[in-house]
Design brief:
14 strands, binds oxa(dethia)-CoA, Peroxisomal Thiolase, Chain A, domain 1, 10 helices
């Protein structure tokens, strides 16, 4: 599979650290030194679907393709307003995509876009295009009374158009089931006259043990990047760009040091985007692409980690 175009979308409102410091016991200094974040985009009306539709339109326009030739839509998200229909199905409707299509969502939190690409590579029909997205409306599940998480997350969407190709493409993935370190609860069950009421339900807002995720993130990023490079038969020194999940600049710096790769080869936009979960890798890819950073033939490693717990990495050639 080969990516032929990128696109992204985000809400207008940029919420700065200083704006948080007016409503929370926090500071720009704490947030920036611990995370690398200065501001993040927050929805004032956008949804995961509305942002996904704009990102998809951008990617379709950049590819210059006929949307009737899209045969696969995979959307990674944990913040769709509906359990069903999926974002991918709603995009089929809103973008006017053909009905003879395979359209579904992937729930792998911040690794979601990496999982979506890995799955798409197996499913993309010959002669058709795939529309692959990460889209998150995290502000709808953020606990704005928890200063250790609410300052981290932003909203946005990233999309790519891909086509079937013999170009090198390698995918590694992992999962380590854990509902304690990072979770977002579902709606409580409706009262059921045939079953006792549940003793408790997880909170519908995002909960995270930051240090637990930090340790996991560095460990699996280093492991999955090494593994995918080895599957591609490449030394890390031959990789032009590393585009990783933007959760914390210190995670990326730590992983770069352990991998022995200069930090300049790790793209970072966390300063202005915050953590947009499944959307972060495609948004980063689009920003790198839009600024002329990607050239045909470049060796690229994408890597993600997050809730599930999940992780994954992809090697591809641009
Ligand atoms: O995409 C999903 C994956 N998520 C991640 O990868 C997140 C990974 N984890 C992290 O990025 C970091 O663990 C955090 C940024 C979330 C937290 O940084 P930390 O260096 O691990 O801080 P901490 O949780 O150990 O907290 C240190 C102190 C605490 O105060 P005390 O107990 O030492 O007095 C916190 O209460 O910092 C305090 N603190 C804050 N202070 C000011 C926590 N949040 C804030 C805040 N402003 N926003």
């Amino acid at each position: 599979m080969k990516i032929i175009s990128t696109g992204s979308a985000a809400p207008e409102l940029a919420v700065t650290n200083e704006m948080f410091s007016r409503v929370l016991d926090t500071s720009d200094e704490w947030i920036f030194t611990r995370t690398g974040i200065r501001s993040r985009r927050i929805s004032t009306g956008d949804t995961a679907l509305s942002m996904a539709a704009r990102a998809a339109e951008n990617a379709i326009a950049a590819a210059g393709i006929d949307r009737a030739e899209i045969g696969l839509v995979v959307c990674a998200s944990v913040t769709n307003e509906y359990l069903t229909p999926s974002l991918a199905c709603l995009l089929q409707r809103d973008l006017g995509l053909p009905e003879s299509i395979l359209a579904f969502d992937v729930n792998a939190a911040c690794s979601g876009f990496i999982y979506a690409l890995g799955i798409a590579q197996q499913l993309i029909p010959a002669g058709k295009y795939a529309l692959l997205l990460g889209s998150e409306h995290l502000s709808r599940v953020t606990d704005y009374s928890d200063r250790s998480t609410c300052v981290l997350f932003g909203d946005g969407s990233g999309a790519v158009i891909a086509e079937k190709s013999d170009a090198p493409f390698h995918f590694v993935s992992g999962a380590r089931g854990d509902s304690g370190v990072l979770y977002i609860g579902a709606s409580p069950p409706s009262p059921n006259p045939f079953a006792p009421p549940p003793e408790s339900s997880p909170s519908k807002l995002l909960h995270m043990d930051g240090q637990g995720v930090f340790r996991f993130a560095v460990e699996v990023m280093v492991k999955s990047v090494r593994e995918v490079a080895s599957r591609a038969g490449k030394a890390l020194g031959e990789i032009t760009h590393f585009v990783c999940h933007q959760a914390n600049s210190r995670i990326i710096e730590n992983a770069a040091t352990r991998l022995g790769v200069p930090l300049e080869r790790f793209f970072m936009n966390i300063e202005t985007r915050g953590n947009t979960s499944a959307a972060s890798v495609p948004i980063a890819l689009d920003e790198l692409n839009a600024t002329g950073g990607l050239r045909r033939g470049d060796s690229v490693i994408l890597a993600g980690f997050g809730g599930g717990l999940t992780y994954g990495a992809i090697y591809l050639e641009w």
